[in-house]
Structures are given as C-alpha cells and as structure tokens.
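pinging the channel bc i need a second pair of eyes. not urgent but kinda urgent?? the chain im working w is below, pasted from the shared doc
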Amino acid sequence: MARIVRFRTRSQSGAHCARDLISVSLEIPLIGAPRQRGAANRKWVKLEVMRQKQEVTDIWARLFPKFSGSSTTLQGRVREMMVHSILNGLLPAGTKVPPSRALAAALGISRNTVSLALQALVDKGFLISLSRSGLVVNADILLGQANQVTPAADEQTSLNWSARLISHLGGQRNIIKPANWQDYDYPFVYGQFDASLMPLKDWRACAHQALFAPALKKWAQNHIDRDYEPLVDQIQHRLLPARGIIAKRDEILVTAGAQMACYLLANVLLERQTVVGIEDPGYPDARNNFLIRSDHVRALPIDADGLIPSRAMGNCAYVFVTPSHQCPTTVTMSLQRRHEILELAKKRDIVLFEDDHESELNFSGRPLPALKSLDTDGRVLYLGSLSKTLAHGLRIGYIVAPAELIRELRALRRLILRHNPANNAHTASLFIAQGHHDAFIRKLNLTYRERRARLNEAFAKFLPQFDITPSQGGSGAWVKGPDGLNAQALAAQCAARNVLIEPGDIFFKKSSVAHQSFFRLGYSAIQGTQIEAGVQALGCAYHAVLENQRSSSRTIVLAA
C-alpha cells in the first residue's frame, strides 16, 4: 500500500523550475496483513497504517531537537539532520524519505522549509528522485564510507596503556571551567566573552572579503611553515608599535595563543636541570608547560607592584612574568619595578618570558611600555595574543624573539600544526587594518571599566569583609575572603544559586589552607546589569558556607 503526495519546491533563489515538481511516495509495508477483503480488514489496515505513520513521526520528532545548536536556520537544521541520518546508517541506501508534508508535521515547521531542505539534498547528491518511488537515499553517496563495525560489549583490550605512557599530564592541576557556563545566570567566569559586545557585523564583513577569489588564492594554499603575511604585517606595524616594540619580520612567529608559545619555548629552551621561575600566584598553564620539561620550576613572590626582583629570581635561568596585568591578581607592574627586573635579569643573565597579558585593557590613560620595549640586549621574549580581546576561541597569538630562536620555534611548530589557519589569519588582518580592532578595544575598555565599578560597589554593599585587589584594567578581579574561607565550598554554594566563580588555590604552585580564601571573578562574560544581583547571590552563598561551618563545629562539640 502506498500513498502518493505531490508537492512543489522552490530553488534557493525562490524561482520555480520544471525540476522542482517531484513526486514522492511513502510506502508503509504491512507485513502479515490478511489477504481477504472486507470492512473489518480495511479497518485493520487503516489502523496499522496510522500506527506506523505515528512511529515514523515520533522518530523524526525525537531526532530533530538534537540539532538545535547547530545551524542558525531551520532549513539548515533539517539538512544536517538528514545528512547525519544518511551517513550514520539511520537511513540506509535506497530508503524512501517521508514526504515534505509528513516530515514538516513531525518537526513542527513549515512544509516549504522542509521542501527546500530536501531539494538541497537532491542537489548535493544525498537524495535522488525515482519514478513512482519519490525521494530515496542515493547509494553512491555512501561509496566513500567504510562499513561501521560495533565492537562486542564484553571485548577487552590486552594493552596496558598506563605502563606505556611516559607522561601523565592528565594529573596536572588545571583551571576547570564548566562547558555550560552560559547556562548560569551570573557567570563570573574569566576568559570568556560577551557575545553582545562582539562587533559581529564588522567581523562578518571581513570574513566575507576573505572569501573573494583573490583572497582565497592567498590563504587556501599550504603555507608549509610560513606565517600568513598580511597578519604578520599588522602585528609588525600596528600591534607591536602600540606597545613600543620594533621588530623585523623574521623575529615574529604566529602561534595558537600564548599557551602554545609557552609550550614551544619550553621544548626548545628547557632541560630537566634548567631552573625556571614563575610568579606565585601565577598562570597555571605556563607553569604546567614548564613542568613538562624541567624538574626545577620555582615559585617567585609578588607584591602590589608585581614580580619582586628577589634572590630566588636571581637563581633562575628563565623567568615567566605578566607585567601589564599580573595573572591572576591583575596588578600592574610599576615602571620603576620594570627597570629593576631588567637590571637584575641583565646582571644574572636571565631570559624573561613576557606574557603581555591584557595590555590593551586599561581603565585610565595609556598603558605602561612593555618590558620588551625597555630591553636593550635582547633578553626579553615577548608573548602577545588577540584571544583575550577579540575572541577567545580565535586562538591567535605571537612571539617576538631573536631571529635565530624564531627559526627553531618555527621548525617545532611545523611538526605540530605546520601553521595557524590562514583563513582566520586573513580575516583578523582585515579586521585590524580597517580599524575595527582599535574601535573594539575602546568599547571594551569603557564597558569593563563600568563593570569593574559595579563589582566594587556591589562588594562594598553586600560583602564588605572581602578584599578586592585594586586594578588599572583587565577583565577580572582577584578577591580574598575572610581567613578560614574555603573557596571550593563557596564555589559549590554559588553554583547552587546559579553563580559561577573560580577558586584561586589553583594559581599557587602548592595549595595550602591560606590559599583557600582566594578566588577570581571575571566580568567579561556577564552583563553589567547582572553584577549587583550576582554579588548579592554570592553573599547568600557565603552565609550558607558560614552556617555549614557552624553546624559542623556544633556536631564536633556534641560528639566530643
């Protein structure tokens, strides 16, 4: 038994054409149906057809929501759902596809949307139209697919991978950020961005220009180990001079962010006996990169001016430092301290890794010059990034260092990923060249200054017993709670109230009770209007922690 449904689709341009008229048949096999005729039999067949139709409808209705976060259009979601079903064997070759009317009803969307999606799949070769059969899955589309084999549930491997591993990086202490941070009402998460601030129109225009034929010929080729020249040009002539740095082209290497820069430097410069210093508290991912190569990573003290030029620093061969906005405290190193650091480095032959962390984000006046710009003998290796300002997911950073070192770093990078994605590099170069990046930075500074002020006011109102480290810029705040506070317990209570904070003990080389009272609050991802309510909820979480501590103390006393 089959019911023929005829419908007319439109091409993407909306124009009718002869091939748009497609006959689609939906055949529902009635296995075991009685052969005799009669009213009772016809009624049974009708009920069976309705039941099987409902089963088909339920399948698509359950599958479609799984693609809610993929394409931005309903038509795109339908196409992706069908492609997924075909390539994963849910719709085997030759399977008839439900007609547009039935599929639209199952998905709860317009028939025209479904018709356009199905026609697009015909154009791409996923579906074919057969006379008197309608749309079916094209067997040729699966020719490049290997047969999927599902291993037996009780199949066990005989390999002992724990014994084979020569490293156990999974055991390192790392910053943990929940993947669903956007689901929180008050996401005080650091290192994420507010989509409402992103100049999407400008970025989209630059991305569109990157798809023109002349641009495509430039970035789509294999660059082997070379960087994309238009981006290097913008780094050399626009970004670095703003930090007082003059560099030649062969002294610049593009990386996938500052973290990759740390990895490259660690693998090229460090040995097991090399002494490396890093601020304490400091950037955990840099510390972990150095720990891969060296057994002597030293924690260096900081104060209100940043890294202290101490005896411990003088005993290091390399020192990682974040002078613009110290990670995580956000303090800015004074100009006098910068000269003192450089003097000690020169005296003790120390090479400095300068991570110019959020240097563009300043609330008042011009930023202080980078250490690299004050360096007179080439001992500062400069790490810059577009990730913290433009978009964290973009992953574009760069290293400025002597040409001899850059050549070695470039050779190592080639073994990892050859070069950064050139399409993103082209779009970013246009974004900078056309002035969008500078305008965006100005907008961020105004917005973050306002959010920081709101944060300070909210803490003064709801949590005056907490101390926020003063800052001249950046996108986060370093907070110290009262002595005895456990920030891990506070974070758990906050999460129950839809507030997301980051416990601070991870930033210290060794966790201790004294470090448990610190935590970090980011304000790049939370709306300014939500900050006061978020801090108020944080205050409620703090009082819940106090009450739990009192209850535990009473229990201990009673037990004694």
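so The two ends are 81 Å apart (CA to CA). and The first strand starts at residue 2 and ends at 8. — does that match what u expected or am i reading it wrong
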